[in-house]
Amino acid sequence: MSLSGSASSSESALRVVWVYPDLLSTYGDRGNMLVVERRALQRGVRVERVEVRSDQPVPVSGDIYLIGGGEDRPQRLAAERLRADRGLVRAAHGGAVVLSVCAGFQILGHEFVNDLGEREAGLGLLDVVSVRGTGQRCVGDVLADADESLGLPVLTGFENHQGVTRLGSGVRPLGHVRAGFGNGENSGVEGAWQGDIFGTYLHGPVLARNPLLADVLLKRAWNVADLAPVDDRWYEELRSERIAAVGRPS
Ligand code: GLN
Q1: How far does residue 190's CA lie from ligand 1's centre (Å)?
Q2: Residue (of 16, 31, 189, 4) closest to 97 by Cα position
Q3: How many CA atoms lie within 13 A of 59 on its CB side?
Q4: Among the options 102, 138, 161, 176, which is catalytic?
Q5: Can you give the pTM of this predicted structure?
Q6: Closest ligand 1 atom to the C-alpha of 70?
Q7: Beta 138-146 vs 47-52: how paired, if at all?
Q8: What one-character DSSP code corresponds to residue 59?
């Protein structure tokens, strides 16, 4: 959709698709949908929220797709169904904006290692491959300087994963890690993005911790360079609290 003077009319509602809430939504990833919805509404645009459970087809007509994190077994089930369904792949190829978190991020790559220890095909929407890390599980708060072309302040989030993700030449890291593990293996980077497809290990939920990242998704969905600023005071309180907590013994 494009943002126009009649943006609040029903035909121009923003369609936000939440993929597989029954399998993939750990650590409050559901909040990502609420933040996108609220920030769209604050710009006068109604949101049509589409929750697609894993036994339902993924519609191809969404503007923004959100997919969250999950345990290893639900992650395998989700990947199997998304590969068979093709809806998310078709939507992404058609220009939809996608934000994926943790297990969802791994599924969007070329492959990941599943709960059976086997390499499993992902959707190939991001030029990344995930393997199972052999070291300690990556758990805790993360701080990462966002990729400079995104124009975002420092990224904050919470991570909890065993998988580590290696980036191919077709993606850029979402951020450069200041604290925490990010993609793991001392890569120094967190997440990945290419075009309108984003992946991150950050929960929190990531868009509540980084509301300007939600605005990046909205700008891409609406094809606009700027959005009217909104009151970010509550987000700023959360951000300062979590940024200050990094490195503090828990
Ligand atoms: N199961 C995956 C891993 O441990 C993803 C975990 C998650 O989504 N929090 O790497």
Answers
A1: 14
A2: 16
A3: 14
A4: 102
A5: 0.95
A6: 8
A7: unpaired
A8: P
Provide the residue ranges of all domains of the chain, joining segments of one domain with +. 2-244
Q: Is 176 labeled as catalytic in the residue annotation?
A: no
Q: Which fold has domain 2-244?
A: Rossmann fold (3.40.50)
**54 with 21: CB under 8 angstroms?**
no
For ligand 1, what atom is nearest to the CA of residue 163?
Answer: 10
- Contacting residues for 140 by C-beta, under 8 A, at least 6 apart: 158, 159, 180, 181
Distance 105 CA to ligand 1 centre (A): 9
Q: Are 180 and 144 in contact (CB under 8 A)?
A: yes
CA 231 from chain centre, in angstroms, equals 23
Q: How far is the CA of 11 from the centre of ligand 1 (A)?
A: 37
> How far is residue 76's CA from residue 186's CA, in Å, rounded to a whole number?
26
Give 109-153 pLDDT, tens digit per residue. 999 999 999 999 999 999 999 999 998 999 999 999 999 999 999
**Token pair of 53, please?**
């459970």
